[in-house]
Amino acid sequence: MSAAIVTRELGKRYRSRWALRDCDLELPAGAVIALVGPNGAGKTTLLQLLVGLQQPSAGSVSLFGRPEPGGSAQALAQVGYVAQDHPIYRRFRVSELLHLGRSLNPGWDQDLAERRIEELGIPLRQRTGRLSGGQQAQVALALALAKRPKLLILDEPVASLDPLARREFLQVLMATVVDEGLTVLLSSHNVAELERVCDHLVVVADGRVQLAGDVEALLGEHRVLTGPSGGLPDGPGMIHVDRADRHAHIVARIGDAEPMPGWAARPIGLEELVLAYLRQARDPRPVPSELELSK
């Protein structure tokens, strides 16, 4: 599968602080990619570097084989971007936003934009400032899709929406993915919602990529091990340990290997997997040393 996004040693520094560092990614075309991490992890910085809103302090970015998207109008014409706060002109009518989009984008599909707005039941003469949060998000998505992009980047697009509006937004998004064959990079805190729609995962914490890969493959490689708290196994595949008085639960990357005698293994869920890597990033102590001390 060809790559839609490739980054090599990508980094962004603000004075003495690195917001993103040593970011190496190769994300497949045609995938729906979840970008997950805590606030301040570097997610928005990464997305802004991809679309050229910021320039990297180190490393490189390429989209669909074109280097330096920030300086390439051809590459950016293939990208649709929806920011978290849905920055649309609130005094504009919806029809005026569509006219602006048509004026600025050479590949603009006016029929597609009007059809999507009509399907949402949003009047073209309505001022966007009077729309609900969910409607504003849907208008922003319609504007991004009317560019006919190959890559759609969404930065927390449903963070401020109620559960019904979030579900409707994601339904429209996934219907478009099926119809158009888009590559989607979606940043969100809601792992449960991402699990239903995404097939690739990137976990970012403390300005670094902690985990990246195909969701199904990652879930197949990891297990939750349960066994006696006093005899913890050791090894490089141990990601995170939760200890109680009598039992311990370990998230481990063991593939098809059998756990040691006395330990039970079960499949892991996506949310458990993400939390384990975020906790590992938060605690800089190497897990094998911690396990040795517990014996």
Automatic annotation (TrEMBL):
Signal peptide stretch: none
Positions of the ABC transporter domain: 5-231
Gene3D superfamilies tied to this protein: P-loop containing nucleotide triphosphate hydrolases
InterPro entries on file: AAA+_ATPase, ABC_transporter-like_ATP-bd, ABC_Transporter_VariousFunc, P-loop_NTPase
SMART domains per the UniProt record, alphabetical: AAA
PANTHER family in the cross-refs: ABC TRANSPORTER ATP-BINDING PROTEIN ALBC-RELATED
Protein name stated in the entry: ABC transporter ATP-binding protein
Source species of the chain: Jiangella anatolica
Lineage of source species: Bacteria, Bacillati, Actinomycetota, Actinomycetes, Jiangellales
